[in-house]
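Would you mind writing out a protein's amino acid sequence and the numbers that encode its backbone to help me picture the idea?
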Amino acid sequence: MPGCGRKARVRAPPYRPIVLRRLLCAYLAFRIAEFGVWIGLAAAAYTFGGVREATVVMLVQLVPAALVASRMSEAIRCHGATMVIRIGLSTQAAGMVWCAAWLATNPAGSARLAGYAGAVVAAVAVTATRPAMACLLPRLVRDDTALARANGAVGAADGIGMLLGPAVAAVLLAGSGVAAVFATMAALNGVGALLTAGLPAGIACPPTATAHRSLADDFRLVLASPSARVVTGLLAMVSLLIGALDLAFVVTAVDILHLSASAAAWLNAAFGVGMVLGGVLFGAARRSGFARWIVSGLAAWAVLLLALSVNESVWIAAAMLAGGGIGAACAEVAGRTLLQRIAGHERLGEAFSIVESTQMAALAVGTLTVGSAVQEFGPRGALVVPALVLLGVTAATARAVHRSERYATRSVVQFA
């Protein structure tokens, strides 16, 4: 493995499909655990302190996570992307075990702060996986077509995680309690860490010319490119909308569709199914014209959210959310693939660390935006306001996205 400040080996490992499959299985375990713990922690915080405590706990996780994510490129340069994924998954498992032990013994009173500390540790460690994955994938495929297909598989794994994580958490909450949710998700992350143990040790993102840089330097390095700026911004917008939907699903279920609050889980599942289909669609379809995938995916998502705000049929709502999930997955996977080509293999770590940081911040902003929209415009505002923002941003950046693709002609595949 490369040492910090020394030039890393950039030669790709021998092509072995089993290595890619093991990495994708580890990523799937990570995403199921991430979504499951999010539900479990929200349920615990709500039980102890109501809506206010649940909101504060969610935000307290996201703020340090956003700050640490922006420095993840330094860890990748120093230790290699494979090791960063392994340490990240192991740290998440440790934080979740801490929370499970706390919930199983003494969850009340001032001990809550110590328990929440474990959740914060796990949330910070979450930011290691996606940037390191973006560095590893170009080194595990033969060509750019295979890279796009692998990114599609990652998008499908995101949807499966969004579908299965909350479902498993709901079953465990009903049958065994919150502590079982954290213990199960810790085991999943442990399995993911073990799956990465067989990855070739030489896989790492190469360091750029300067070994040590400040956070501002990393932002300037990546965002100096107008193409990188616009794609990073749109990926952050996807996260903002996903953060907004966490609360919007509940509002839609209760106040628009006139169902119980638990029906929000089914709306979330419909969106997750759409994300799985979107990832599969992108991986199977002709993988050119990334800008068209991004713009059409975001526009379709926004239009379907607007239509959902005036619909009162449960089945039509589920179909609309599945369609929105397809659009969201296509846009995100295409955006990540395009950013890989814009950044080039020399700056993959920096680019996707910045993406992870902005997406964590956008999740927090999305959560706060929906609450304000409901207060100002009523329940339908939970869907209308985010949809109009998304539609406006998509229209304003469409030409810039197409222009970015014209300049993103480099291959980042490092197969030897």
The chain is about 80% helix and 0% strand.
